[in-house]
Amino acid sequence: MLSYAGIGYVAGDATSTARSPVGIAHQPTFLTRESRDYNSARWLFNSRLDFHPALIATCRKENEIAAAVAHAGRNKLQVTVKSGGHSFEGFCSNNGGLMVNLSGMNQLSYDSRSHVLTAQPGCRLAQVSALLFSKGRLLPSGSCAGVGLAGLTLGGGYGLFARKFGLTCDHLIGLRMVDGRGIVHDSDDEPQRGAALLHACRGGGNGNFGIITEMRFNTVPAPKMFRSQRIKFRKLSPEKVGEIAKLWFAATAALPDDGFSAFVLNGTYLTLLVTFFEPGSRRAIEKAFKPLCEIAWKAEAIQVGPTENAVMRYYGRPGPLPFKNASAGYYRSYQDIGRAIPAIARQVAKVPGTVWQINTLGGQIGRADYAKQSVYPHRDYPWLGEIQAYWEKPARADACVENVAAIQTLLAASGVTAHYRNYPDVALKNWGTAYYGDAGLASIRAMKQRYDPGDIIRHPQSVKAHPG
Ligand SMILES: Cc1cc2nc3c(=O)[nH]c(=O)nc-3n(C[C@H](O)[C@H](O)[C@H](O)COP(=O)(O)OP(=O)(O)OC[C@H]3O[C@@H](n4cnc5c(N)ncnc54)[C@H](O)[C@@H]3O)c2cc1C
Question: I need a labelling partner for 83 at 20 to 30 A (CA). Which of 49, 147, 196, 345 fits?
Answer without folding.
Answer: 196
